[in-house]
Amino acid sequence: MHNTRKITDDLTFLGVNDRRIALFENVFPVSRGVSYNSYLLKDEKTVLLDTVDKSAHDQFLENLAYALDGRKLDYLVVNHMEPDHAATIQDVVEKYPELKIVCNAKTQTMLKQFFSFDVDADTMIIKEGDVLETGKHKLTFIMAPMVHWPEAMVTYDVTDKILFSADAFGTFGALNGNIFADEVDFEKDWLDDARRYYTNIVGKYGAQVQALLKKASGVEISMICPLHGPIWRENLGWFIDKYQKWSTYEPEENTVLLIYGSVYGHTESAMDILAGKLADKGVKNIKVYDVSKTHYSEIVAEAFRCSHLVIGSISYNGGIFCNMETVLNDLKAHALKNRKVAIVENGTWAATASKQIKAMLETMGNMEVLEPTVTLKSALKDEQEEDLNKLADAIYSSMK
Ligand code: FEO
């Protein structure tokens, strides 16, 4: 049985869901699963756009056979070689031996690395701007290196103005029958996962995403078909604007993210008190996370959302608390920049964390440290409330 859906008269959605997966890329928790999207264009020629993860191979091949309805498969366009989209290529080649794979030269090299079929004989190499005429439709190709691998490209259907955007504009989360963003409450139910997907998967490559957005702005786009998550056919500008902010490391909101590493709860307590003081001043949508409890991928996403960070860490083995250090390394790895940062440290006999946190922030881009740094010695004392008040004042003033 198939679970395809029609997108247009000529275009069919063949995507499949994976709700069993625990960790995407064996790193990122995906409690709502993930979808691997694939598309079939039926024109005078038939064109499959990307395949799916190995885990979804059976359903995908059934969907493809159903959608082809007895026709042969002429082309497979490979926009991205990461195995969540490419693992099934060899199966497709073996089932439809007459097809030609349409890809760029870097993709061809990767095909040879991953697979054992005769790649040279089966591929047709294209470059940026080349056109594949399939009858009524004309497909053209835009290179998108490092969004999210070096071979990545996107395909644009000139006839219907549809952008097949590869990893760009994707999101974590399995689809629920509703494959279009306008069929769900995206901002309420999907935006957090879309942000976590973007920031953790391609967040590091803001400059390359900017380059792609610039190229894509030169064409009229009526629909975006990504490789994960819902398809966009309405309100595209709203989602493109999110990408504009994320890829330029501009905060989405003027608000505060407080993250802490605390062993016996004293640093945690100071952070909760500080969060309350900020709320008293009128700051909205504040978030407080324990770095030992919340996965760092969620904290990376929240750090892209918020204009201000408060880092609260005990001193541990003469340095930053281990789980906080992991988070800070991850923020740096994803190139987070342009944030205002306050620090609360704690040390029963030698508070060393703030010095090392500041040293790490200096290696990131445009991270402004707000003073005073608050130092606790074991527990927060009544007389130190003034320190927290001053820090809350400094954070609030810098938000205006
Ligand atoms: Fe969804 Fe980079 O693969």
Set out the fold topology.
Blueprint lengths: L4 E2 L4 E3 L2 E3 L4 E2 L3 E2 L4 E3 L2 E4 L3 E4 L7 H12 L6 E3 L5 H4 L2 H7 L4 E4 L1 H10 L4 H4 E3 L5 E3 L4 E6 L9 E5 L4 E5 L19 H4 L1 H11 L4 H11 L6 E4 L9 H12 L5 E9 L4 H15 L6 E4 L5 H10 E11 L2 E2 L1 H12 L3 E10 L6 H10 L2 E5 L4 E3 L8 H14 L2
Parallel strand pairs: 8-9, 9-10, 10-11, 15-16, 17-18, 17-19, 19-21, 21-22, 21-23
Antiparallel strand pairs: 1-2, 2-7, 3-6, 4-5, 7-8, 12-13, 13-14, 14-15, 19-20
Helix pairs in contact: 7-11, 8-9, 10-14, 11-12
Account of the 3D structure:
This protein has 400 residues and is of the alpha/beta class. The chain is built from 14 helices and 23 strands. Helix 1 (57-68) links the parallel strand 8 (46-49) and strand 9. Helix 11 (296-305) crosses helix 12 (322-333). It is elongated and about 80 Å long. The termini are far apart. Bound molecules: MU-OXO-diiron. MU-OXO-diiron binds next to helix 2.
Average pLDDT for all residues: 97
Low-pLDDT runs: none
Cα end-to-end separation: 57 Å
User: Sheet bearing the most strands, described?
Assistant: 7 strands, mixed
Beta content comes to: 25-35%
Bound molecules: MU-OXO-diiron
How are the strands of the biggest sheet laid out side by side?
1-2-7-8-9-10-11
* Structural class determined from secondary elements: alpha/beta
Morphology call: elongated
Cα-based radius of gyration, to the nearest Å? 24 Å
